[in-house]
Amino acid sequence: MVFDETDIRRAFDEGEFFPVFQPLVELRTGRLAGFEILARWKHKKFGAISPDDFIPLVEESGLIDILSRRLLECAFASPVLTGSAYTLALNISPRQLLGYKLPERVAAAAKRGNFPLDRLVIEITESALLDDLPRAQAVAAELKALNCKLALDDFGTGYSSLRHLQALPFDEIKIDRSFVNSMTVERESRKIVAAVVGLGQSLGLTTVAEGVETEEQARMLAWLGCDLSQGWHHGRPLPAEDLPRLVFDLRARSSAPLPPPIDGGDSMSRDVLPAQRLAQLQAIYDGAPVGLCLLDRNLRYVSLNQRLAQLNGLPVAAHLGRPVAEVIPSVFPLVESYIRRALQGEPVSGVEVQRPPEEDGREGRTLLLSYQPARDEADEILGVSVAMMDITGSKQTERALRESENHYRHMMQLSPHIPWVLNRQGEVTEASSRWESFTGQPLEEASGHGWQKMLHPDDVEPARAAIRLSLTTGDPIDIEYRVRRLGADWTRMRSRGSPRFDPAGEVVCIYGVVEEVEGQKQTSEELRNSQAELRAAVEAVPIGMIFAGAHDLSVYAVNPAADRIFHGTVFPGQTLAECGRLGILREDGQAFSADELPLSKAVLRGETVTGKRALYQRDGARMHLELSGKPIYSDCGLLIGGLMMVRERAPQD
């Protein structure tokens, strides 16, 4: 089919040209943002004629202005568009841009339709700027003065000159459909799309992707940070009378935001623009308390933060561009295999490495490292991201806590007592294994009320009555009864216990111990000897140690090292609340609350705290400390107290 100017004029006269509207959708939210107006020709004889066939002929005939005016007038007459905040985009030809009447005609059409021009986007192809850039700049300035927005269409297919982006006041940049259609299968197309999106974001331009036909393309564009999308994936172009249905369908679909292109993708990439993400990540990178760096495929430093430079004992500049083996030769053989595994795509985390002492006198350190493959937008590995943490202090604290725990475990083993726990029904829920060795009754049988089978018949009911009284009144238990000892006759035992209460004052359970009355003098002497051994061990430890009980929340022992650190201000009988007001401060200089101290966390909640940095301030002097807390449990697993260990540290540690 061959048409000429006569056919075009006849088509105008008979109203065969009409607009259709292709939706523009916000990729990050799925909401409808506006429409692009496209021209269609329905020939009375040949039916639909492709725009590729008639648009060049309309331009050559000098009728393109008439076509654009009729498209705008039809759009401005649609209640769906005039009664909303949707934008309208119209592509103009190079001839129109260089004409003198375009701004005037646009303003006249908008005035007749009462359409606000700040919602009109004029799309300009880059070829329109080549013949007469000064004239194009003048027309663009007039359009901007009318509050119209300007978009650079089909970017990447022509000259793609950055000079044009600088010369005209563009608001949008459109990514050509040829790159969008192939981006999910061709690495080069993905990189071009990512580059255009990044360019748009760096210049503050809205980025619009054309020709989006699949969910996969839309998801990838959203992840890359593209703003708007148009194409058959969101809906085919429809005439004005079908706009209400199209708007309704798109609103229904917008309730389901697009997921990331890769399962488990970064949620931040969907909510924040790339330029903002870069600023956020840079701030996190520089301010992180752990060492961070990126290595390229040749194991050279590409970037690193100040913390990692400090851990390596070299300036940042001494790392960049140099291989790891050259910068830290003593550590590289220990970590090379993990780095190379990450280069093969395997994440490696939780690697603990003992760094040997350096020749310059720096002591050996214990490091915790993680290695993650770093991928580009084409999902190819470009290097390895490394995170490094110095855990030397934590390891030292762990060793000290283990030593302390061993001391207390030894003390509990030497104790002749048999700890037990009763629930609010008076049933034994926990007991020491010493009961089984003492009576021969297995602990499984002793649970509940089974332990009463080992009592003398005359003592069973008095024992039950004492338990009921304690559960009812909250008074302590202190009774004696006879127990048949394994391989022996009846032995008199003494059972003592104290209830534990809930916030409402109700008894939750009773903690207690059983001890043999006969031979108590001999046992007491043995216990005093064992306690003396334990006391000597605790007093010899060079780390400050403060012990508190779980039953009354007060300090019951302080070793000489702690007494020296705190100048005698911590002593037995003090409550945890009083300890919190003795000048122990957080590292930021603020006072600890009573329940923030590692000792309080250990006693109140059974938490283990390691390496908590703190300050101690008294009489104008300030001391840097490292605090650790550990709960103390009985043999049967009961929380009976807590220990806080205190170590002086240098300010730079």
Structure description:
With 653 residues, the chain is α+β, with helices and mostly antiparallel strands. 37% of the residues lie in helices and 28% in strands. It contains 25 helices and 26 strands. The strands form 4 sheets. An 8-stranded mixed barrel has the order 1-2-4-5-6-7-8-9, surrounded by 5 helices. Strand 18 (477-484) and strand 19 form a beta hairpin.
Strand order of the largest sheet: 1-2-4-5-6-7-8-9
**Whole-number mean pLDDT:** 83
For the termini, the CA-CA separation is: 84 Å
State the helix count: 25
Tally of strands: 26
Net shape: elongated
Structural class: alpha+beta
**Poorly predicted segments:** 262-273
Beta-strand content: 25-35%
Q: How is the main sheet built?
A: 8 strands, mixed, barrel
